[in-house]
Amino acid sequence: MAPEVVFCIKLCALLILSPVFVHVKGNHPHVLPQAHLHTCNHKIPKEKEVIHDVQLEPIHVIRKRSVDQNLRIHLHLDQSLNNLPKGLRDLVQSKILKAIAYWEDTLKVRATRVPIRLNRKCRNDNVIYKDGQRYCLQGCDPVTTCGDIQIPEDHLQNCQYVNSSNGFSMINNAGNGVSGADFILYVATLSTQRCFVDQTIAYAAHCQLEAALDRPVAGYFCLCPNAISTNRHEYEILLSVLKHEILHSLGFTAGLYAFYRDSSGQPLTARDPINNKPPYIPSIGIHQWSDKVIKKFTRNNWKLKSGTSVKTVDMIITPNVVREARLHFNCSTLEGAELEDQGLNGTAITHWEKRVFENEAMTGTYTQNPVISRITLALMEDTGWYSVDYNNSEELEWGADLGCDFVQKSCFEWIETRQIKKGDIHPFCNEVRQGSLDTDCTRNRKAVALCNLGRFETKVPAKYQYFSSLEGVNPKEIEMYGGIVTLADYCPFLQEFVWKTGTEIMRGSRCSNLENSLGNYSLSGYSCESDTGLTIYVRGKPHVCHYEGQLISVQFMSADWLHTGEIICPACSEICPDDGTCPAEQKPVVTVDSIEASSLKIPCSAKSFMYGPYNSPIVILVAANLLYCMIIYFCYR
Question: How far is Cα of residue 472 from the mean position of the Cα atoms in its chain?
């Protein structure tokens, strides 16, 4: 028998559950399959918040070296972490170390053999240069910070300044610096104003760049103490958030695109001959990059419900990103990787487009199972500062091999074209979340999911309206329906969810969770045979899947409750990919597996509240208010 595979079982069950209904004020749906677990609140540092030209070794020496040394990150924990309860502090530190270890194992840099001594902040940010050296025109500030975190004196270089005689002087107050490191990461837990925007868990940025290649050598991230959860379900999300934020400080940010270099170390954006910096645009607070890094492209036939429009997209077009994006989507004409066009400064342009990359970890909001893909690693390689280990990338299933139509056209056109052909609109969906818990399985069969198509309190913007009709929806209200993830251009898609009791998350919907498996009932496995094709086993009994979508009915008793439903057969070719294994599809009668048939005395409806173990007054009261029949898919191995 082949290894276990996850199938979906459609069960009609009587459950006393609190479904995941989340009421959000403003223009948001009434119900959500899952709240956004993290919205990135990255803020591009202002010009005065970034200090340039940290001197390491001679510039010509560094530029000649190969990019072959694993990145070494020195972690400096601010005293504010001591304000956390010990258990929470230990959790945070362990996840930070794990996130750092991932990037140290994934990225390589040019070797340096001297301590990092960071530059001091100049008073009033008045800086001048002489012979390539940086001097403070009005002396040095007594305190130098990285974001909101004070840099220790021992990490700082001498103060170089212009004296009263207009001579160039130096106060010999250098610290020891940080040895054995290529990047210093300052971490604090502070309840700043930014912590109360959306659902921010942490935010990060770079703060100092070295002189040879403009690579960041210092950055910070701040954890919002009130947003850190000790719920085990959210541990992996916390780790992903930390990886995401650290990557912003290492280079994935609109604040650094203009400093990217080619593989030989030459700038991709032209430099000012006086200060050797790319042009700075005060009105938008960034250094302007060239079209060797990001380029605008026009989609002239962008199809919408209201007709055809023109859409302009910003795309990273550096060589490794182009290669990986084309391979991932299976689109040889794809110009690059599309960047987010919604959100404020720090969301737009600084993340991958959510519609195109969905659960890639470097999109602007997390919805489910975030992964660091080869495309993100390719961007880090294209900074000119790092080489990357692609073996450490994670599989991005969203959009894989779906072709140019998926990645270069609107989700409206994708959905409409397939509906006309009566085909599958995957990865999008059109089931409206209403009273019943109508769930599905994710395409990889690893989790239960809900279509996140919901009703908004006001009309969805016209360019994000995708349906002329929806089952069970008043035609006059169609314009109020859309996918609840606005950064994904309101395109609805299947989304993993969580069970909650009040505000407490009980568990997620992934099939690997033991809580999601009923006792004494399982799919024990499957087999692939050339004469019969795919056979699945229910409690040891074989059932041949003659065609995709075939229903195998099941019914069983559990804790005095009757469950009935069907196993939905997948395509044989999906589970048994070897040539010659899958015969032609045929459609015989539906197979019925009457599990525990002799004891099936209770119909699929409510039984007496005074019957069985549920007779305590509290349970009776709760059950009277919450009991209803829901349709739910459970996944089993």
Answer: 32
